[in-house]
Amino acid sequence: xxxxxxxxxxxxxxxxxxxESKNLVQDILSELKDWNEGDVVLCVPFTxxxxxxxxxxxxxxxxxxxxxxxxxxxxxxxxxxxxxxxRDLFVRYVIIGHSERRQYFGETNALINQKIKTxxxxxxxxxxxxxxxxxxxxxxxxxxxxxxxxxxxxxxFTEAEMETVILAYEPVWAIGTGKxxxxxxxxxxxxxxxxxxxxxxxxxVADKTRIQYGGSVKPENAQELLxxxxxxxxxxxxxxxxxxxxxxxxxxxxxxxx
Length: 258
Ligand code: PEP
Known about the structure:
Elements: E1 7-11, H1 18-31, E2 39-43, H2 49-56, E3 62-66, H3 83-88, E4 93-96, H4 99-105, H5 109-121, E5 125-130, H6 134-138, H7 142-153, H8 159-162, E6 166-169, H9 183-201, H10 203-208, E7 211-214, H11 219-226, E8 233-236, H12 243-255
Helix pairs in contact: 1-2, 1-12, 5-7, 7-9, 11-12
The structure holds phosphoenolpyruvate.
């Protein structure tokens, strides 16, 4: 049995206006009242951060996350959002390198590395997303893809900095497709990721680092996935957009003993 505390994060992507977010946060809070068996994070759109933050600041069950940041502390970057702006709204976590950002916005491992550095400098906890495409899995390239994504994204960080970094293995072929990696496939990728972390930072850091699984996680499959030895939580897209389903997923996932 591992001792890592489970962490479940909802990624709302580009869904929910600020007023819709208010309702959804309130509903999630009432479903998860007094919950304390794992960390729960809501990564809402930028425009909902203030509303969500105001609802979350008086409780400790659910924390606030963002979905991206700019790597520079400030400057002439029209349309971008800095780490300081997020901190000012009581954001604690930030998703970095989601496959949709890699695919549609050309984010590279080198850029993701800079963004993680910026997050850490501002005491935001980065959730580093990585994972292979269907083609890479089918041509048995997934291990080398994961290895280079992890090594390049985490190059240069210290063991102390790694204490607040969370990883999220998200096979691209399982995101938003309804196709989940089997618990065995996910466990194999997570165990492999931990061996890469051991090479980079040593066993003590690798053993402590939490690695979420993401890709069509639902209340029905959360427990089986999260009871795998190296799966420490979930990053959840679609199923985080409805309060009852998200709360049920959190309860089943956090109670899974790995
Ligand atoms: C995600 O957006 O990170 C994700 C895993 O989405 P979904 O749960 O909808 O597959």
